[in-house]
From TrEMBL:
Any GO BP: oligosaccharide catabolic process
Pfam families: Alpha-amylase
Protein name (database record): Glycosidase
Family annotation (Gene3D superfamilies): Glycosidases (3.20.20.80)
InterPro entries: GH, GH13_cat_dom
């Protein structure tokens, strides 16, 4: 049995977390730029709210589970975020 009681996760609502390109909408590059901040607060993992294309602002009514909503960035931005999280 895995004991996960020591882990603390920070849920990121990407839409409003950190805007890296000045368009007023948070994005994956913004999340990547704030990983140190999240870690400094004592969290050792993140939980992203949905980032897939959707008609709703919260992205829970997903249209394509294999894509990244363009307002949040690209698949390369997501891959960079994942790579930075592994460090």
């Amino acid at each position: 049995m895995i004991d996960d009681n020591y882990r603390n996760y920070y849920q990121v609502f990407v839409y409003s977390f950190c805007d890296s390109n000045g368009d007023g909408i948070g994005d994956l590059a913004g999340v990547t730029s704030r990983l140190d901040y999240i870690q400094d607060m004592g969290f050792n993992g993140i939980w992203l709210s949905p980032i897939m294309p959707s008609d709703s602002y919260h992205k829970y009514s997903v249209k394509d589970y294999y894509a990244i909503d363009e307002q949040y960035g690209t698949m390369q931005d997501f891959e960079k975020l994942a790579a930075e999280c592994e460090k």
